[in-house]
Structures are given as C-alpha cells and as structure tokens.
Amino acid sequence: MSAQMGFVIDLKRCIGCDTCVIACKVEHNVTTGRFRLKVLDSHGEQVFEKPVGNFPNLSQYWVPTMCHHCVEAPCASACPTNTLWRRDDDGIVMLDVDKCIGCQRCAEACPYDAISFDEVDGSADKCSACAHRIAGDGRPACAVVCPTRAIHFGDVNDPESKVSKLLASRVHQVLAEGKGAKPQIYYLEP
Amino acid sequence: MESRAPIQDFDRIVRTVCSPNCLGTCGVNAFVKDDKIVKLEPASFPEEGFERICLKGIAMAMERVHHDDRLRYPMIRAGERGQGAWRRVSWDEAYAFIADNLRRVSERYGTRSNAWYNGSGNYAWRSRMSVKRMANQMGGTHFTSGGLTSDLAGHLAFMAAFGASSGANDLAEAKGMRYMLNIGKNIADTGHSEMHFLFDAMEAGCKLVVVDPRFSKTAAKADEWVPVQPGTDTVLAMALINCVITAGLVDVPYICRYTNLPFLVRCDTGAVLRERDFSLAGSASPMVWDEANDKPVPVTDTDMPRLSASGSYDCQTGEAIAFRTAYDLSWENWQRCTPEYAASICGITAEQIRHIAHEYTTMKPASIWLGLGPQRYNNGHNMFRAFITLGALCGNIGKTNSGVSFVDGGVTRILGGGANHEWLRPGGKVGHSLSGTAMMDIILSGEPYPIKSLWITASGFAVQTPYFKRFRQEALAKLDLFVVTDNVMTEAAEYADVVLPCVSYYEDDWDIVPGGEIWFVQIRRRAISPVGDSRNDYDIFKGLCEHLGDAEHWQLDPKEDCRQILARHPLAMFREVDWDMLARDGVARIPIKRPHVPFEDLNFNTPSGRIELYQEQFASQGEALLVNKEAAELPWRGTRADLPMRLITYKHAHSVHSIHTILPSVREMLPEPRLEISQADADARGIADLDEVLVYNDRGQFRVRATISQSVTPGVLAMTEGWWRRHFTDGHPSDLSYIPHNEVQARIGEVNWAAWDFGCNVRKA
C-alpha cells in the first residue's frame, strides 16, 4: 500500500495558543488577513473565544484546521486547470500556483473552508502539509512549534507510525465525514 | 511583492534565547537572511522535551525588531515633556546631557538622589542586573521591582515559612503525580511551554482540579473546575484544613517533627516560650511538651513533642502565665472556618470543599500548585501561607510529585537573593535600595530623601504599574531628569527627557539566560546587527561611565564576563555549569538532582529549622496565627456598595504583559480588549453584547467593548491584560488600581502591589 500522509491532532492537548497559526504564516509568507491554518474554538470562532454551556457547567476546546488533504479531494475535482492534484506517493494535495486562474471554484467546493484567495497575485492558496520540509525531518511547521505536542503528522497507512498508533489507541473522528471526501485530519477526542 | 514560496533560503541559523517575563526562556533558532530574521523555530536542548516556542516569540522576532515604533537612535526632547518633539543625538551628546544632570543632582542633593528602576522585559543576566550595577557604581538608588510586579506576596510567604523564596516540584518529571490542586495557576495560558508536561502527567492518571474565578484555558483542560469568588482562596484553604483535621487525615508525626506547631506559646502575648523563660540559665530553644516525660522541655531534648498541650508556669514576677501549643491555638481559628462558612464566602458548595479535601488527602502523591493571581490582593501572602499550611499538615512538603509549588528555576534563584553581589558592585561600590512600590510616595514626599532623577529600563511603566497617572500629573515635575531605555517608544518614554535605544534579544551578543521554570542555562548570541545605533543595557551604562571617566570596572569582554559571572557565583549550581558546553552549544544543564524536589532533606533555613506555620514575628500585626485577613476593598462585605464589581486583568497566551499587544500578527489573533461580563450584570445595567462600556472607580476609568460571557460569575469582570493606553479611547485599567500598605509584607521584604484589590463598577458608555 502506498503512503497516505495525514494529520492526527489531539484535541485534549490543544490549548488554542495560536503558535501553529503564526508559524504557518511565517513559513509560507501568508499575507495579513489570510490563513492556511486556523484554530477555531468550540463555537467555530477564530477570535474572541467563549466557552460552551452555562456557568458553571462549561466546556471549551480548540480545533486547528487547514487543508484536510482529502483522498477524494473536492477541490481537485472542481479545479478546471489541474492546479490542485493529489500526489500519488504520499497523498498530499498539491497546489501549483502557476496554473491557477483565480476562479475560486476550489474554495467553494472545499468542505473545510481551507482555501483562501490571495488578492495580491490572484490565486488560490492552502496548506501544503509543508511538503517542502519532507526532505528534513518531515514534520510540518505547525507540528514543529506546537508547545503541547498536539499536532502529529505521518503515514496513516503504516501501522508502525506514531500517527497510526495514536489512532489505534484513542477515540477519533474526521470532520464532515458525510461529504465523502475522505479527509486526512484525524481529531483525537477532546 | 513577497514571494509565495516557503522559507527555505537563509544565510545562517543562530541559536539564541527569547526571554521576556513569561519565564518560558525559549531557546530558539533564528533563521537569518540579509541580516533579517525570516523564521524562528524551537532550538534543541540537551534533554528531549524542553523544545519550546510560542506565538509571541515568533511575532516579536518577525515584527517587534523592526517595528514602526522601534527606537533607533538616542533622542533628547525638543519641546515640553510628552509633547512628542525629539532631537536625534549621538551617544556622546546623550551621555553629556545625562551626565550634566546626574552631576547637578549629586552636588545638590547627594548621589543617592539619582535613581534607577528596571522592569521585567528581559531576563538575560547582564542586561537585567546591569541596572543595579550602574546604581551601585554611582552611589545612587535602585528601586526594587519585586513588589511592583505584583508577584512578591507569594515569595514573602515562602520566605517566612521555609526560609527560602522559591520552590517548585519538577513538573517536567511529574508522571507519578496523582492529583494536582491548582490554585489560579493558569499554565495553559501563561506557562504553555510547561503544559505538555502536565498533559503527560494527566495521561498517566493525574487528576487536575483548577480553582479559578474565571474559566481559563487551564480550567478548560481540568477534570474539575472550582469557580471561587476572587480573593477568597485563603478562606478555601482554611476550610480544607478544617476538613482534613476533622477527618483525621493529617500527618501528626510529620507535623511534630518538621513544623513549629508543637511549640508552646504564651496565651497572652503570642510569644513562643523558650527555655530561658523557665530558668535564667536556660537557652533560647523553643519549648515543647514532651510526651514521654509529660512536661515542657526544650525542643532539642525530645523526639516526641505533643501536638496538643496546655498549662501554665510562674514567670519571674510570680505571675502565672498560661500557654498552649501553637497547634491548639491554630485549631481554634481553623475550627471556625467550616466548609459551610467558606462556601458562603467562596461561592461554591460545602460538599465540593469536603470532596476536594478528601481527594487531596487520599489520591497520593498529591500536589498543590499556586498561581500568582490569587496573591494579587492585599494580604495575598496569607493565601500562599494557607496552602503551605495545608500541604505541611498533610506531610507533603519535601516529597516527590507532591509539595506546594509555584515558580522555580534558575531565574528565581537570581531574583530570590542568590544574585552575584560581587558582579553587582563595581570596584566594591554599593548604592542604596528603596521599595519600588513606594516609589511614587518617595518622589512626591522627598522622604526618606529626595529623588531627583529616574532612569527606567525594560518596563511597561505607563501601563503595567498603578502609577502612571500620578507620575505624569504630579511626580514628573519633581524630577530634574527622566531617562527611558527601551527598544520601542513606550508610553512612558513619550514623557522622557532622554530616550535611549536598546537592542532586542536578537541583536545582543553574549548574555546569560537562566531557565525560567526549567533547570538549564542558555547563552544569548547575536542573530542580526543592532538596529540603528542601539546598544545593550550593559554597554549603555558602560558608555556613560566612560564619559564620566570612571569605567575601570566595565571593561570585561562579554564572553569572559559570562564565564566569570557563573564561575564566581555564590550558588554552587551556577558555578558547576559546564561552561565549555554552554559556550559551544548555547545551552547546558544546571547540575542539580532531578527530579527536583524542594526541601527534600527536610532542613529548613528558618530560625527554628522547621516549617514555620506559626509566625511569632507577626504577633503585633495579628498574624502569628494563619488568619483570613480580607482584601482591602471587599464588595461582598458592603464596604463599597457603590463599587460592587471585581476586575481581573488576566495574563493570556497572546502577550507577555505589554510587549506583544502592539504586534500585527498578535492582533490578528487578539484584535482588541473585550470586557467579559456575566449576563446578570449586563442585564442589570442595560448592557448588550458588544456595547461600549465605562469601567470606573474613584481613581480612574477606561472605556472598552463588553462581551457577555459565561466564563465569569456575577460580580466579576475579566479582561486580557497588556494593552497600551492607545488601545482605549479613554483611560486605562491600571488607573483604577492602587497600592494599599501592608505591614507584614513590609516587614518581610516590601509591600506587594495588590494589583486586583480594588472595587469598581461598569455602565453603558
């Protein structure tokens, strides 16, 4: 079986500190006002978080979200120019900015609001799973900086990988499973 | 246009250290391209698990270093103070201006009338300590910063009980911990580099209970959240003590052997009875009631003192003096603080208090972690004292994965009195020291002596102290010279006569950064050239000394200086750091036994050699026994019915005090201050979500947008801290606060600024 890279994010450990958000922006020169990665609170809000429930029975968790690197990527299907495509050897969904015509059909198709539009160069932009770092230790910038060790990245098809072991030992889910895109961010229950 | 390509192109990677007052002390790799930082990543440590970085540190390296407000050159004001007109000058001209003024003040009032104060903006050793070194060199005055950071009350309680100002069990090796009773220590927000250690412990089975008036990030991660009313933690602790004693869950042999509660105390004066009180030839040894012989004996003569005893003896005037053990006297106080009584004050149930007491004593090893928030009320030392007492009664001090902890690490060992006095005294010169919390009164009154010049560095003086309104309106006119050193134009610097540009963390070379809450020392190395004409604190002072022709003791090469600071340090743990490794790798262990267990040998550096839970020295202040002395302004007592609200300005993940709130990336995550208010309080005042409101009391006010939140109870307001005056259309939260005097704190060290001890109210703007 070929490799399928995926994120496993431990919502018990995520504290919503936004360190991954800024590391991602710095790593990829993401302009102000846009994000490749966001951290949402229990209400789905990025800023001014509020707990859920009524005092004193409250809860709050945070959900880092970026490109889910779907196996059946709706963005790739919607793209008229093959800007977006799924890499066979590791399953990462790539974006070739040179081919992008700025039609934004990908952003409409994405179930995860993971694609932003760069007004400056008129093209789509999204998480690349830091594919350029795979030659290094393979960890994306968000996983490198995470203070609480909540973000893991690896081959979910390899039963010996850290991510597979986490999935085997903890209750987990993907978002918007019903859309059938087979997303590759797995969230360990908060 | 910036390239969309990922950052892969850089000239070099420099390992250095980020060191604001979060105590994270993150070793970082700065990726440098064309003398600019293009990326920051966590650097490696000799032990895996200590890699650390955060949003703030990355934003600072990317955005504060070249911020629009960055100070690049020395400047002298060209108009009235605060007018905003400046003249760029050379360092020579700045030194000449400063030196003239310092000389004039010295000649007219004496050298001690020149004063220095440093804030907590940089925990690098030479930078931080050079301020006091300069004051000593000039025979001037150094204003202490412990009380003014509002962190000191807890330290003072540790000093009084243990004879040492700090101590934390090793959170990095806490997998055996079964229970953490966390009192307002918001690790997830304010110590998030250590948070993964706590998650490790929790995954291994530790239960986390968080006591906090606000639903903090740490509370969100807890197994149980205990939302007490602000400033009532002492009552909670005393009720827990009541519960553990009533349930017979205290460790009596431990109390008898390691605390001073078996000491016999005069019922009339509260004085500890000593052998010499019984016989003229007797020693100063405290007396206890010996179990075996059933009579009073010097504590040195028995291994079996009774915890409970009473009697009387004939003093030299023939009068019969009644005595009891300190434990018996204490119990009278604790007995009154029932869970039901505490529940009525703290706003939680008596059952919850009993349940915490039960779990704390049965889920072993159990630890207590104390945050600094709960000691930000007048008499805040009693809150720490109360939990130290609870821990000691249960025999938990000096045990692995247990104990009563707050911040520890190398930094606190400097601040806690282990500082290298030789280094601080150039040529043996010693200046004067005055309390920072008394600064404004001293400047205004001229007592105990006039202060005529003030030079502050690394401080958010205008927004992080309760002083600035008074300073601007009254004290500034008393000063012949006001100098500010910083790396951006702060709102205090705007009122200075001279502003001096200081390098950022990334432009300085060779300084020592001891770990904030970890047992490592790191070295700061230069990643990029100093911006403009900026210099480090040490070199700024060195230049002045050269101008004054008295720089003989400011000539050490920075690298050699770092080596010698460690080699000559009074504490062996610093002397024994592996210098070669530190100089080569930028990081080395502080060689102490790990896991670190404070007071593991159960020897205490107190007069009795025991944990001093009874404080004879505070009898005249009514605090020989642990008592619940209430906060200064207590809404629920009706002392200020017109000011029924409490405001908590809390530390958070997005800024260390006022350092990072001016950075664009941070503001994307935290756009503005928002006042969190309960639905009930909002309804009672006709306030709707996102309305502009005024928060006010007799001293000041500020205008802010309100947000209705379940995270606070009625009576409590909460807001992120660290905002500048420019972030409010009117006023500033610090204007509402003040510094109530506290005699006990003054006697142990200095008064702690009780930053949250004020009443206030809120209305629609």
Global structural class of chain A: alpha+beta
Q: How big a fraction of the residues of chain A is strand?
A: 15-25%
Tell me roughly what share of residues is in helical segments of chain B. 25-40%
- The helix-strand sequence of chain A is EHEEEEHEEHEEHEHEE
What proportion strand of chain B?
15-25%
Uncertain segments of chain B: none
Give the distance, in angstroms, between the N- and C-terminal Cα atoms of chain B: 43 Å
**How many β-strands of chain A, per DSSP?**
12
Q: Which CATH C-level class of chain A is it?
A: Alpha Beta
* Protein chain pair with the most extensive contact, residues per chain: A-B, 46 and 49 residues
Quaternary status of these chains? heterodimer
Question: Remind me, CATH topology of chain A?
Answer: Alpha-Beta Plaits
Structural account:
The complex is a heterodimer of chains A (190) and B (765). Chain A has one domain (5-188): 2-Layer Sandwich (Alpha-Beta Plaits), CATH 3.30.70. Chain A contains 5 helices and 12 strands. Chain A has helices at 19-27, 74-78, 105-109, 141-145, 162-169, and strands spanning 5-10, 38-40, 52-54, 57-59, 63-65, 84-86, 93-95, 116-118, 123-125, 151-155, 172-173, 185-188. The longest helix of chain A is centred in the first third of the chain and has 9 residues, at 19-27. The radius of gyration of chain A is 16 Å and the shape is globular. Chain B has 765 residues and is α/β, with parallel strands linked by helices. Chain B has 25 helices and 30 strands. Chain B has an 8-stranded mixed β-sheet with strand order 5-4-21-20-19-6-7-18, covered by helices on one side. Chain B has a 6-stranded mixed β-sheet with strand order 26-28-27-30-25-29. A 5-stranded parallel β-sheet of chain B has the order 10-9-8-16-17. In chain B, helix 4 (152-162) packs across helix 14. Classes of the chains: A alpha+beta (190), B alpha/beta (765). Chains A and B meet through helix 1 and helix 4 of A and strand 3, helix 1, helix 6, helix 7 and helix 23 of B.
